[in-house]
């Protein structure tokens, strides 16, 4: 510490409310309560063991702390601090108190305490952070900014309940490990809050946006972009690609190309998995009578109602309770379980099913009678299926055809192996999920759930499964050649557009090392001429903002508009820059896009909600700009002449 610092009275922070009182002044009860809150939030760090001399024990603790500091402090800085040098490690000009100095040892202790504190928030302070912390706290103290014990206790309680700790004991243990223990951690937190409050109070008044700033913020967030683009259809290049198909043999031949694929890519050329299975069940349009099935496997919940008349204690004149609609409950449950397979509305031949859910499927009220008739049969079939699986697992040989005949059910023998798609086409039995359900079974296994399709509900048993396999190359050679050509056509589409893009150069005056390589640039006329030379038409996506709703885009279904909406990087282009060509998501077209300019939106398009959002965003920007301009380290250094004696960090 310099002679000036030694001769100058120590500057103290103003007393915190509730922590002390002037002579003859009583402490207000509320402040006393706040003091108790803080005392409850933290506890004493040093507890002298019973029978030990308190003074000797305290000296031992201080010695341990000193040794810890010796091995933790950077040697170069510690040697200067310990040598008794009068030079300060940091100085700054206080607006009212003049030049203030911080010794190397004090600075390091503050940095270590701040480091322990900021780790909670994922930060690690450097020298500049520490200097800024000390200056802001000094300014806050001189401005009369205070943090009460109650506010400090509330911050501690919030920390204790945060994900980092989740309870007060974990926080206390962490505070004890800080260099200053609980009191030191508490004081650093108070300083941090005090400095933050000082900055916030000043920034609040400076960051109140006016109408022009609000509108400017809205315009910035709703910039409208236009694009010129050309699309090249992959299908138009198929003949050119087919002419490039390689020979069958050789390292670059078709056979080698096929063999290099993984199993997933080879799947289109494989013979599909095939299954042989037998089915038994109820055809909705068949002549089967389910009476035998219902008699053998009755509903266990039906018929349990009984007449309570004459029971002891019953009021003979009491009104009977309304009869419960058990069949209605079964019908509704059945409808909910099978609606998507059984109750789809008929679709005229040649048309696609409706996209709208309500239009595609019947409502319960529309088919309630069918559901009431089918629900008991469904339940009985489930009970029969469960019985079959139990008996099969016990080792019983089951003749499914014989049992189906005995119960009066339809039966389809397992005489042929079919692919999953073929099973879906089996007359009367097939449907969209039958093949997939059979494919999940192992040979001789019964289906675990009843298989319901539009024409039948059935129990199935898989008899045989033939795995998918890749046939001889000659069998699939033509399909492989066509797949190779399709891949090459996609590559050609991108390559041709890349050649157009590469014919342009970047503007030299737009080269910026911070932004990476500049992009090719073209005027509207130059771009149109190059696109026409390739035999393509130039299209324009007019000015729209990033979040334009599909309903507000009259051409939202155009492939070019869809592509531009999905390529968010296009919005980062400068006017005239050309993006790298790529394929659309469906790989049916490749696109070459040029940014055609940006414009401000009309103010009348601003909605009330957007106005409120702009007030918040413009205020936040003004706040951030003010804080950075006035309280960043560079700004503080210029205003308050901060100086630090930098020391090179030594390695371990």
Task: Give an overview of the whole structure.
The chain is an alpha+beta fold and 652 residues long. It is 46% helix and 11% strand. The chain contains 25 helices and twelve strands. The strands form three sheets. Strands 4, 5, 6, 7 and 8 form a five-stranded antiparallel β-sheet that branches. Strands 9-3-11-10 form a four-stranded antiparallel β-sheet. Strands 2-1-12 form a three-stranded antiparallel β-sheet. β7 (451-452) and β8 form a beta hairpin. α9 (181-206) packs across α24 (608-631) and α24 (608-631) packs across α25 (633-640). The protein is extended. The model is unreliable at 1-49, 61-85, 304-316 and 648-652 (pLDDT under 50).
The value of Rg in angstroms is 41 Å
Major sheet attributes: 5 strands, antiparallel
Q: Helix segment count?
A: 25
Q: Characterize the overall form.
A: extended
Estimate what percentage of residues fall within beta strands.
5-15%
Helix content: 40-55%
Unreliably modeled segments? 1-49, 61-85, 304-316, 648-652
Spatial separation of the terminal alpha carbons: 28 Å
* Classification by helices and strands: alpha+beta
Mean pLDDT: 80
């Amino acid at each position: 510490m310099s002679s000036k610092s030694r001769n100058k009275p120590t500057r103290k922070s103003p007393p915190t409310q509730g922590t002390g009182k002037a002579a003859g002044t009583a402490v207000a009860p509320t402040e006393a309560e706040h003091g108790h809150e803080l005392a409850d939030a933290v506890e004493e760090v040093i507890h002298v063991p019973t029978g030990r001399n308190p003074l000797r024990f305290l000296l031992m603790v201080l010695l341990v702390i000193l040794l810890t500091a010796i091995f933790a402090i950077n040697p170069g800085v510690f040697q200067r601090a310990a040598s008794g040098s009068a030079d300060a490690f940091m100085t700054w000009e206080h607006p009212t108190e003049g030049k203030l100095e911080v010794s190397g040892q004090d600075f390091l202790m503050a940095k270590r305490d701040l480091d322990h504190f900021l780790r909670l928030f994922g930060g690690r302070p450097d020298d500049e952070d520490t200097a800024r912390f000390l200056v802001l706290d000094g300014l806050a103290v001189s401005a009369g900014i205070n943090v009460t014990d109650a506010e400090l206790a509330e911050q501690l309680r919030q920390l204790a309940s945060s994900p980092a700790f989740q309870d007060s004991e974990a926080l206390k243990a962490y505070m004890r490990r800080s260099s200053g223990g609980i009191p030191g951690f508490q004081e650093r937190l108070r300083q941090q809050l005090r400095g933050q409050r000082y900055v916030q109070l000043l920034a609040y008044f400076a960051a109140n946006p006016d109408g022009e700033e609000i509108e400017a913020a809205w315009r910035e967030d709703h910039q409208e972009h236009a694009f010129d683009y050309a699309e090249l259809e992959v299908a138009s290049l198929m003949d050119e690609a087919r002419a490039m198909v390689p020979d069958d043999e050789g390292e670059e031949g078709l056979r080698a190309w096929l063999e290099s694929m993984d199993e997933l890519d080879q799947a289109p050329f494989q013979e599909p998995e095939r299954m042989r299975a037998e089915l038994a069940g109820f055809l909705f349009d068949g002549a089967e009578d389910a009476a035998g099935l219902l008699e053998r496997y009755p509903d266990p919940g039906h018929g349990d109602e009984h007449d309570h008349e004459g029971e002891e204690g019953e009021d003979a004149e009491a009104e009977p309770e309304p009869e419960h609609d058990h069949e209605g409950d079964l019908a509704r449950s059945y409808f909910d379980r099978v609606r998507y397979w059984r109750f789809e509305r008929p679709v005229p031949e040649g048309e696609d099913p409706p996209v709208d859910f309500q239009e595609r499927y019947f409502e319960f009220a529309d088919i309630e009678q069918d559901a009431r008739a089918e629900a008991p049969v469904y339940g009985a079939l489930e009970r029969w299926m469960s019985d079959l699986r139990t008996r099969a697992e016990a080792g019983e040989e089951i003749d499914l055809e014989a049992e189906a005949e005995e119960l009066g059910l339809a039966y389809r023998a397992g005489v042929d192996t079919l692919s999953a798609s073929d099973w879906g086409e089996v007359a009367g039995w097939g449907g969209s999920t039958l093949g997939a359900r059979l494919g999940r079974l192992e040979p001789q296994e019964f289906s675990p759930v009843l298989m319901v399709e539009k024409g039948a509900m059935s129990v199935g048993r898989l008899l045989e499964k033939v795995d998918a396999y890749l046939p001889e190359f000659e069998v699939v050679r033509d399909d492989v050649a066509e797949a190779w050509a399709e891949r090459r056509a996609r590559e050609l589409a991108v390559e041709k557009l890349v050649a157009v893009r590469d014919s342009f150069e970047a503007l030299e005056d737009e080269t910026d090392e911070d932004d990476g390589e500049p992009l090719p640039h073209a005027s509207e006329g130059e771009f149109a001429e190059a696109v026409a030379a390739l035999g393509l038409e130039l299209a324009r996506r007019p000015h729209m903002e990033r979040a334009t709703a599909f309903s507000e885009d009259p051409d939202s279904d155009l492939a070019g508009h869809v592509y531009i909406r999905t390529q968010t990087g296009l919005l980062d282009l400068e006017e005239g820059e050309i993006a790298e060509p790529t394929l659309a998501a469906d790989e049916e077209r490749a696109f070459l896009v040029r940014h055609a300019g940006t414009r401000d939106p009309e103010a009348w398009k601003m909605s009330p909600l957007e106005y409120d959002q702009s007030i918040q965003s413009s205020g936040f920007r003004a706040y951030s700009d003010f804080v950075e301009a006035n309280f960043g380290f560079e700004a503080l250094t210029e205003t308050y002449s901060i100086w630090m004696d930098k020391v090179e960090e030594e390695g371990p």
